[in-house]
Amino acid sequence: MLDTEEIEKLKKELDLLKIEYVKLLNDKDVLQNWGKPQLEALYCTQIGIHKLELLEMQLQIKALKRKIELVRACVNQNKTPDFAEIELTIATELANAQLEIMQQAEQIENSKHLLKKLDSPQRSSELRTIFRTIAKSLHPDLNPDLTEEQIKIWHLFLSAYKEGDLDKIKAMQLVFEKEIKAVNDSSLLTKEQLLLATESIKQGCKHLQDELFLIKNEFPFTIEEQIKNEDWVKDERQKMKTDLDKLAEYEKELDAEYKTLV
Hints:
The protein is mainly alpha-helical and 262 residues long. Helices cover 83% and strands 0% of the residues. Helix 1 (2-76) runs parallel beside helix 8. The longest helix is centred in the first third of the chain and has 75 residues, at 2-76.
């Protein structure tokens, strides 16, 4: 009798641990595949676009300074500057920096697109709720004895979830209803198997908690409060505008110097 009670207690504990594991798994996925891209996109469109202007201005200034340097070198050697060659030299030297700017510009455009196509909070919540239910039955970490067919079905659900396709995942839930129910449950496990499964999932939960801690302490989550604060964004933009104005004045001076040399 005592052994039966202990087994029932282990079953309940295992079921609760599965729920906790799926929740943590979902929290990690939300942070990595929903929260992080959205925050990065918000940062790009709010702050990144202005940082890009600064980068472009800094590159123009660097190019002008190199032009002046190369022309002066020719003059000091009593040579006639070959301006076409100078332009080519500078373009080659700054190619990597120019490529970085182009990549950042592309990232900003992608961020604008991502923010425009965000799903409604209701649909996103429904998608995650269904996925948690499926994960409890089909996630390989929680169900080590899955058949090959069940693992394939799991990956179909996982793919639909990552694509954010609520309609598809709801349809698959109906299509694969029998296969999902056929997964072995805790009622068929022995006491030793229950103990082993419980300990394994406890370790899995600890590992996920550690991963969540690390994710939350990385960019962009470290500035989540700031990027959602309009006053902070406004101040940052003003600082960059001030820097941009100073660089613009410096560029004018360099441009005038270069034209004098020419």
